[in-house]
Amino acid sequence: MTIATENIGNGLLTNLLAVNEQETIVQEPVVFTPKSVLSDYLKAWHDDNTLVKELIQKFLRLENDYQTQQITPDVVKQQLARETAALMEQMVHQDKRFENESLKYLTAVIQKLFDYLNSSFFVKIKGNAVVTIANFLYRKHDFELTLTPANEAKIEHLLALLTEHATVENQLLKAFLDLVRTQLDFRLDALNRLLLLSYLVSLELNAEETGQHALILAHGFSTASSIADVTNQFLNGKVFDAYDMPLTVSVDQVKSFLVDYVKKYDCHKGLIVLVDMGSLMVLPETLSDLLTGPLLLINNVSTQEALYVGEMIQQDAGIDEIGRRVQDKLLPQYKLTYPVIEKTPMIVTTCHTGVGSARQIEALLEHSIPASVNYKVESVDYAFLLKYQREAPMFKQYDVVAIVGTNDPKLPDVPFISLEMLFSNKGTEVVQQLFPTITDAEELASINDKLIQNLSLERLLSAVTILDVHKVIKIVGKMIERLEDSAKIHLSNNQRATLYVHISALIERLIRNDKPLEYAHVTDVEPRVQGLAQLRRALSEIETTYGVTVPEGELNYLYDIVFTD
């Protein structure tokens, strides 16, 4: 008689999964003879058993290294995650029992448990990860995991250490095990909990929220997840999410998933979706009213395409550039859709020293804009602006009203406001340029006051120059004192702030041999002679310290800051 699923029935099949009654089921015929011995039937699992024992020894060595202060908790966490993930994936890929009905049932139940937990913990565990966890739980009795009391204590110490440094993963595991005990009557000891927790850590559930997302949609049990998992591993980071679509899924069901996805995640910097069928290319038209950022849909998804797109995402390529380059390189069909909304005003910040400095300027402006003012501020790499000009994505999505920074990218019809201008005596006039849609004089004055209040000299200079900020502040401060003494003047706070910003940028320009600022020819030189001489003397220590000479054009700019109302 052949025993199959039909003979067992669903009720008994469920009972087979109970921890005290779990049996090993194989697909291949098993032949018993009078000379058969138990080892003949355990051989298939011998290699995996050896691998698990080797992993335990690695764990014990890690614990010893930590106790002797040879490694840090972060290193322990990384090693536990890497070693456990490698073992579990190896066990899954060499396991031939994927068609096992009992394992299929267990996988389906675990998928439902994680689907329930995903909405509570804002994580996504699907596809390959679910198969791996189900395979581990199904096979955990295949291995001889007997430990001495001393080694059990070490494993429990490792579990406590990882629990402390993997808070989100531990909360997820605890909730999962509570459900597993209720639904499947599984109970896990410290070693098994350590293995599962280490595997959850390897999934990088705490991926940083960037405002841009990438998603793979493909039909099949774990097609999308497999492509995403492989791509993320090759790229050494979380780049793609995945949605494994049933073969019978409708376009409306896919749309519903994307609607939920866009609502759940901040996609204002763009959503890139790789799909496996041309019929899904109608999705952008149906989603345009819901989008908060550009949606790029690319057909004919493959691992090669995902890797190519993922590398560009990691390199911060523009979303429109990704579409063009994929079409040129891989020749898929693509559509780029921008949200149909009234463009929000945006101020772009930039700095030649890098996007990190531009973010400091961005934060300064954001803290100065009242919540009632609907303006966006975004930091953009200076080289990126130079390269793409008005073709950069933010110009299609927003109404860019001004650029604030240290260098002018010279974009047509977009005013550039240097930091020196921002904190000059004409601050209110500059604020009017920054916020052209605001006509209320009191509101403009309030923004200008907040800008001055938020001005921290060290913070501002660190955004402008790569020089030693404390050294610059000290030497420019001495220069201002000498100038005030010799010229018998008293500079306002705005003049002082402008001098600090301008001179620090000036010093760096001269050190880098950049082209100095051009100054219009002065027709009436005589009134300036004395002031220029006083400035030259006051600057002498700066020139000596940094080995530079301030040219006449730059000197005239300083004259205007100090002596011109």
Describe how the helices and strands are arranged.
Layout: H1 5-15, H2 39-42, H3 46-67, H4 73-94, H5 101-121, H6 128-139, H7 149-165, H8 167-184, H9 190-202, E1 212-219, H10 223-234, E2 240-245, H11 251-264, E3 270-275, H12 283-287, E4 295-298, H13 303-314, H14 319-330, E5 334-337, E6 345-350, H15 355-366, E7 376-379, H16 382-388, H17 393-397, E8 399-405, E9 416-418, H18 419-422, H19 427-434, H20 441-453, H21 457-464, H22 469-487, H23 493-511, H24 529-538, H25 540-546, H26 552-563
Parallel strand pairs: 1-2, 1-3, 3-4, 6-7, 6-8, 8-9
Antiparallel strand pairs: 4-5
Helix pairs in contact: 3-4, 3-7, 4-6, 4-9, 5-6, 5-8, 7-9, 10-13, 13-14, 15-21, 19-20, 21-23, 22-23, 22-24, 23-26, 24-26
Written account of the structure:
With about 575 residues, the protein is of the alpha/beta class. The chain folds into four domains: about 5-25 and about 40-200, no CATH class; about 210-335, 3-Layer(aba) Sandwich (Rossmann fold); about 345-455, Response regulator (Rossmann fold), CATH 3.40.50; about 465-565, PTS-regulatory domain, PRD. It is about 55% helix and about 10% strand. It has 26 helices and nine strands. The chain has helices spanning about 5-15, 40, 45-65, 75-95, 100-120, 130-140, 150-165, 165-185, 190-200, 225-235, 250-265, 285, 305-315, 320-330, 355-365, 380-390, 395, 420, 425-435, 440-455, 455-465, 470-485, 495-510, 530-540, 540-545, 550-565; strands at about 210-220, 240-245, 270-275, 295-300, 335, 345-350, 375-380, 400-405, 415-420. The strands form two sheets. A five-stranded mixed sheet has the order 2-1-3-4-5. Helix 3 (about 45-65) packs across helix 7 and helix 21 (about 455-465) packs parallel to helix 23 (about 495-510). Residues about 5-10 and about 15-25 have low confidence and may be disordered.
